[in-house]
Design goal:
mainly alpha; 7 helices; 53% helix
């Protein structure tokens, strides 16, 4: 005998699964209600307790920036240039995935540092 039988309550129905939802055995509304994921209705009482966005300046600033505006630069600003590279160079770096342009910049920076180091050693002699 299970606990529900002792208490006189009906056995609880199992929660619907994603498989039930995908097989159309339950609706999305039924699934969300069963799992407690329903969003409550926005009533006039809730609306009366609402506070203006100006009460949350950090949120207002984050929302403003989220629309495509960047915050202050942390690192030195890079310069936009037009640069013609051999097709095989572009194909190679693009093939390395996202960030390929930054990798080209890193390699050029390493080359520059190496050249500067060699130049400094040449002037010492």
């Amino acid at each position: 005998m299970n606990v529900n039988a002792k208490s006189g309550l009906k056995p609880s129905k199992p929660l619907p699964t994603m498989d039930d939802l995908m097989a159309d055995r339950v609706t999305l509304d039924e699934y969300e209600l069963a799992h407690g994921e329903d969003i409550p209705e926005f009533t006039m009482e809730v609306f009366a307790r609402a506070r203006p966005l100006s009460d949350f300046p950090e949120l207002a600033e984050a929302m403003r920036r989220a629309r495509g505006e960047r915050g202050p630069q942390v690192a030195p600003v890079k310069q936009r240039v037009g640069l013609r590279l051999d097709a095989e160079v572009v194909a190679h770096f693009r093939g390395t995935g996202p960030g390929w342009q930054a990798r080209i910049n890193d390699i050029l920076k390493q080359h520059l540092q190496k050249q500067q180091s060699n130049d400094a050693e040449g002037h010492k002699k």
